[in-house]
Amino acid sequence: MTRPRVVLISMYVGHEGVPHAGGRYLLELQRLLERETELTMLTVGNRLNHESANKPGVPGRLLLLGHEQGLGLAGKVQNRLAMTVEGAWRHRRDPGMPFVPFIVGLLRSREARAAVREADVIDLQYSESIRLVRLLRRLNPTARITGTFHDVMSQSFSREPQDSPEEERYWQGVARRSRGHEKAMVARLDEVLVFSDKDAELLGNPPHTVVHPPLSDGTEPRHPPATEPVVVVVSYLARDENNKAALWAIEHVWPAVVAQHPGARLRFVGGGASEELRDRVGCLPASSGVELAGFVDDLGAEYEAAAVALVPVLQGAGVKFKTVEALCHGVPVVTTTVGAEGIDGDDLYAGLADDPTGVADALVAVLTDTQAAQERSDRVQGWAQETYGRARFEETIRSTWA
């Protein structure tokens, strides 16, 4: 049987040890495509992707486009112009636009254009890549083009802080234009993939395929009732919404918790902590119990030691992988409505609230009676492992190739 020729386009690359959830999704997708298709991956040639290019898990045929080294004067001028347009237009009007250096690199690379023209399937990851669907249709009118919306950016933009009339006008304008782009993208795709029914409803017709991220390998052990009052927050702290969530939890939630449980610890696990967050934690007394653990190699050990996982996000869009991961590990979860969004199921959480008092009360309740909270999480864990398991993910992705 002939293997399909697939071009995977993403502005980010998955690899072993990648610090953010989207990268871990890409890693699983790349591995599946490498095993079962003739894969070419195209990505933007920025510093981060050049650093990732030789790491385990990266596809064997990876083309980095834009910012190429060794170009002549004309190429360097093109690169500089592309970066100038990129920075000015993205900041002023269209934060969700495709990466201009990537477009320039694609049009300049014979190898990349040939891969696109010969592809049976073109798989687009994230809205920035899906925005290229019109150009890709021109390069290859017969390929099956699929697009995975990791979140619905118009919703994400509409949730940005809007504390002044100027900010409100800006972000509402960005969200409105983004909704227009999303409607056009959906209309041109052969298959629309989303992570939840909620995102499918936001994007509208035609029908969408819900793909559950493969966040469980099915081997996560039962979580024992905790012996220590540890609250773990797992997130890639370099993301703005995660940074703001961490600061909000420290300022507005944690004082009420530690007042009732003086020995409790709030442990932030994940790389990319901002200088603002580091300074804030550094100014706290040791009795606060707040810790910045940074990136760790073994997340399983962190979940095992935790009494409860906190997902305190207040903005952003899409399924929060960190919420699902904690459910798969059998840890009681306290989160906000944004943190729970798009995850279907009854009675999943030890606490669900958006106000600081409600979140603090839920954390205190878990720390006070870990056995009761763990009994609920034991019931949820099997459902989460099956729903977000690798087998279901692979079956869904294969179904989109034809």
Description:
There is one protein chain. The protein is an alpha/beta fold and 402 residues long. The chain has 2 domains: 5-211, Rossmann fold (3-Layer(aba) Sandwich), CATH 3.40.50; 230-387, Rossmann fold (3-Layer(aba) Sandwich). Helices cover 49% and strands 14% of the residues. It has 18 helices and 13 strands. The strands form 2 sheets. The chain has a 7-stranded parallel beta sheet with strand order 3-2-1-4-5-6-7, sandwiched between helices. The chain is globular, with a radius of gyration of 22 Å. It starts with a strand and ends with a helix. The mean pLDDT is 85.
Please outline the helices and strands:
Layout: E1 5-9, H1 21-36, E2 38-44, H2 47-52, E3 62-65, H3 73-92, H4 100-108, H5 110-118, E4 121-125, H6 127-130, H7 133-139, E5 144-149, H8 153-158, H9 165-188, E6 191-194, H10 197-203, E7 209-210, E8 230-234, H11 240-260, E9 265-269, H12 275-282, E10 290-294, H13 299-305, E11 308-311, H14 321-328, E12 333-335, H15 337-340, E13 351-352, H16 356-368, H17 370-387, H18 390-399
Helix pairs in contact: 11-16, 16-17
**What's the CATH architecture name of the largest domain?**
3-Layer(aba) Sandwich
Largest sheet: 7 strands, parallel
What's the CATH topology label of the largest domain? Rossmann fold
Spatially, the strands of the biggest sheet line up as 3-2-1-4-5-6-7
Number of helices: 18
- Please give the number of β-strands: 13
What is the C-alpha radius of gyration, as a whole number of Å?
22 Å
Look at the structure and name the CATH superfamily of the largest domain: Glycogen Phosphorylase B
Give the low-pLDDT segments: none
Quote the beta fraction. 5-15%
Estimate the helix proportion, in percent. 40-55%
First-residue to last-residue Cα separation = 14 Å
How would you describe the shape? globular
Which CATH class of the largest domain? Alpha Beta
Could you say which structural class the secondary elements and strand pairing correspond to? alpha/beta
Mean pLDDT: 85
Domain tally? 2
Oligomer: single chain
